[in-house]
Specification:
With 259 residues, the protein is of the alpha/beta class. The protein is built from eight helices and ten strands. The chain has one domain: Rossmann fold. α2 links the parallel β2 and β3. Bound molecules: fructose -6-phosphate. Fructose -6-phosphate (F6R) binds next to loops.
Length: 259
């Protein structure tokens, strides 16, 4: 069962996850991080800024979850740009060690396999940060995605395009295709940390954590993983049946255990 931690604010979620990442980097300087984009992980990246000051991050490696296909990597909303702006630059990471799937149309046929090989060559992802879409997607694995899938091209649902239109001038600018780590890829990471904030995510969180395991709700794949931490605010936790049990469990957790 996933460990569910209900926190009072996004900042508290960011602090909790950032502490875990700093400890990981201190114990393994070439830690491989799985990096999500979108608005959800921003409190983690923000909390990491001050916490990582003075720590050696020169060997930290990272793999982004996904990228739009056919969007100029220089576009401010390409995930290459977002990762550079929100993660690489503020945290002082080595850009050569941080990969984002290559969404260029010319080479897209091989881009998924290339990415899988690069993750394998790095020894796999140590800690994967995840957000969740209102339709239950993780990465850009939309409903129906195979639990065994690896990095590949997917078609975004209209719901996801509408959700992401806020980052663009209009919905017409939101690409229809993406390249995303598969659910199988995500499940190979050693620790999954899924964050969600706000009422809009409550149904997806409840279905992912407590619903049946189903390809129709890709986030439910986390139930197949032995080490998952779900960090949610009260609003995103509002449809969890076992919320009181999660609170009790976390309040009584031995300090040495970490998340
Ligand atoms: C982003 C990603 C997506 C987002 C999800 C939630 O790399 O893979 O699964 O995590 O769409 O987006 P936000 O965080 O913007 O609500």
């Amino acid at each position: 069962m996933a460990e569910v931690v209900i926190v009072e604010s996004k900042a508290a979620a960011g602090a909790l996850v950032a502490d875990e990442i700093v400890a990981l980097i201190d114990s393994k300087p070439d830690t491989v991080l799985g990096l999500a984009t979108g608005s959800t992980p921003l409190p983690v990246y923000e909390a990491l800024r001050e916490r990582l000051a003075g720590h050696d991050v020169s060997r930290v490696r990272g793999f982004a979850l996904d990228e739009y296909v056919g969007l100029d990597p220089e576009h401010p909303e390409s995930y290459r740009s977002v990762i550079t702006r929100e993660v690489i630059e503020p945290l002082g990471l080595d850009p050569a060690r941080i990969r984002v799937p290559n969404g260029a149309v010319e080479t897209i046929e091989h881009a998924g396999d290339d990415y899988e090989l690069a993750i394998d060559a790095a020894g796999g992802v140590d800690l994967q940060i995840l957000g969740i879409g209102t339709d239950g997607h993780i990465g850009f694995n939309e409903p129906g995605s195979s639990f065994a899938s690896s990095t590949r091209v997917k078609t975004l649902t209209e719901q996801t395009r509408e959700d992401n239109a806020r980052f663009f001038d209009s919905i017409d600018e939101v690409p229809r295709h993406c390249i995303t780590q598969g659910l199988g890829t995500i499940l190979r990471a050693r620790h999954l940390v899924l964050l969600a904030f706000g009422e809009g995510k409550a149904a997806a969180v409840a279905a992912a954590v407590e619903g049946p395991v189903s390809a129709m709700l890709p986030g439910s794949a986390i139930q197949l993983h032995p080490h998952v931490t779900v960090v949610v605010d009260e609003a995103a936790a509002s449809e969890l049946k076992l919320a009181d049990y999660y609170r009790y469990t976390f309040a009584n957790k031995p300090a040495w255990q970490g998340i």
